């Protein structure tokens, strides 16, 4: 690729880097090398949403003092000593707001556009050959900010003078280090830049998430108080399934708290705390895995219409272990700060396994729910004909009712999820350059709210009470679930012949129940 047009060169560079994410508010450059882009050599220094400075009487050095800036500290360019026998052209730093991206570059006589000034453009007097082409923004003549340094003869290090750029307008700001001299292709960059918002060092697109996770922490505490108080009141009636829900709520409390402290520390220091981030990711991954396994086991009827999972236990455990490993790797890579080292294909390689496992969970859950509902309807029909045990009929009706509500809640959650995924794809396809960065936090926040809402539904349906045992497995004729070691992923299990025959016999007898001896004989068979 030799030269790029103005409308395609810089946007392509921006798009490639913006896809890779942002590492944090203190960007550390340690031996970063320039990459050839068209007729220029480029290093992407960072992209962050920054709010404008706020007038304040607080003159302290606290992060939340209302100042917003991009500061350059200890920026040094190094070249090999064997190539230090000449003075060089400028190595320039370019800072611009994303709306002004087309102010970089130019062309002569309507030809191809280039980032670096060409001989033809230099003849026209619009730029200096060997430097970056740029023109003032129509919104603010002082932008983009362009400044640089050059190598002196026999010097292998060029130091950029410390500089602080005050941000007076809210926007998505981008920093690039660019030079136009092919003889400087081996130059490396060292030093740091500090990006600060009025409320602290947290990047603008992440800033709302700190408050969000604080609110979610409070929401989990409220839910936990309700659930734990019910557990304490009816501790004799608590089912194994309800203990699993307790585990999910506890994990959720820790996850939200760790995320809040992660962002709070990031906001105060400008450096993301690796340890807290890893704990937040781990608690979140385990919580999501346990929640999915609980929903899957409930869909299979575990603890309600079957005492064990039988031969499915190993398959469920294997699916859970696979999911937690794939999710942990993906979340660690995305949150601990190594995302910018990955290419698009590498990210896709990590996202695809999690997406496939999620789809498999959904398929297995709804297939199992279909089979469980079918068998519950059959068992409810049996119990209604058995006039000798009215309590059993009520229990089966209660189980069937709660499973219907559970199925409806899951169906709504899946429909909403699909709709939100479509919106997310639309949002990202229309926001190529992160111009809607102020609303980007809503995307991850929605998934947290949706999962919390589903957890609240489960807590409402299976809250501990004095009647909790009516949902538990009992010897009410459902032992055939134990024999069903495998549930097909294609369609629900067909109705057993003995059950179908029993129903036909009852209908022929005008609704009279079979003698108890016949029922025992059927169960023995």
Low-confidence stretches: 1-24, 338-345, 476-525
Q: What fraction of residues sit in β-strands?
A: 5-15%
Tell how many strands the DSSP assignment holds.
10
Strand count, sense and closure of the main sheet?
Answer: 5 strands, antiparallel
User: What is the gyration radius calculated from CA atoms?
Assistant: 32 Å
Q: What is the typical, i.e. mean, pLDDT?
A: 79
Secondary-structure element string: HEEEEEHEEEEEHHHHHHHHHH
Shape: elongated
How many H/I helical runs?
Answer: 12
Structural class: alpha+beta
Terminal CA distance reads 76 Å
| Residue share in helix | 40-55%
Describe this structure in words.
This protein has helices at 9-18, 119-124, 207-233, 240-269, 274-300, 313-335, 344-385, 390-430, 442-461, 480-483, 497-508, 516-524, and strands at residues 26-33, 35-37, 40-50, 69-78, 90-97, 145-150, 157-159, 163-166, 171-179, 188-196. The protein is of the alpha+beta class. Strands 1, 4, 7, 8 and 10 form a five-stranded antiparallel beta sheet that branches. Strands 2-3-9-5-6 form a five-stranded antiparallel beta sheet, with helices on one face. The N and C termini lie far apart (76 Å). Residues 1-24, 338-345 and 476-525 have low confidence and may be disordered.
Properties at a glance:
525 residues; alpha+beta; five-stranded antiparallel sheet; 10 strands; 48% helix
Layout of SSEs?
Layout: H1 9-18, E1 26-33, E2 35-37, E3 40-50, E4 69-78, E5 90-97, H2 119-124, E6 145-150, E7 157-159, E8 163-166, E9 171-179, E10 188-196, H3 207-233, H4 240-269, H5 274-300, H6 313-335, H7 344-385, H8 390-430, H9 442-461, H10 480-483, H11 497-508, H12 516-524
Antiparallel strand pairs: 1-10, 2-3, 3-9, 4-7, 4-8, 4-10, 5-6, 5-9
Helix pairs in contact: 3-4, 3-9, 4-5, 5-6, 5-7, 6-7, 7-8, 8-9
